[in-house]
Amino acid sequence: xxxxxxxxxxxxxxxxxxxxxxxxxxxxxxxxxxxxxxxxxxxxxxxxxxxxxxxxxxxxxxxxxxxxxxxxxxxxxxxxxxxxxxxxxxxxxxxxxxxxxxxxxxxxxxxxxx
Length: 114
Prior knowledge:
CATH class of the largest domain: Mainly Beta
Order of helices and strands: HHHEEEEE
Distance between the termini: 86 Å
Number of strands: 5
Structural class: alpha+beta
Number of domains: 2
CATH architecture of the largest domain: Roll
Radius of gyration: 25 Å
Number of helices: 3
CATH topology of the largest domain: SH3 type barrels
């Protein structure tokens, strides 16, 4: 009879038995995506574009700013340290996020004189 006794299961594997089961993997994420409200990209006036261009020229590496930009059907804000300003590729990199100049809608921070 002793040969039919199974060895005890370790705690980690035993706990896995009681974890919740997600039969529809990704379903919650898909629902959240459908609930997201998509907006069209705003067309900035020439005056606003000139203002943003002036602000872009005031930015230096390591400045802390807040940028509002259009990405994937919504406007997003990111605040952080500027790590790169690439005028040739027209990209501003803040907190590890590359933002094309054409997608910017607002720049804020204590460094701006406008």
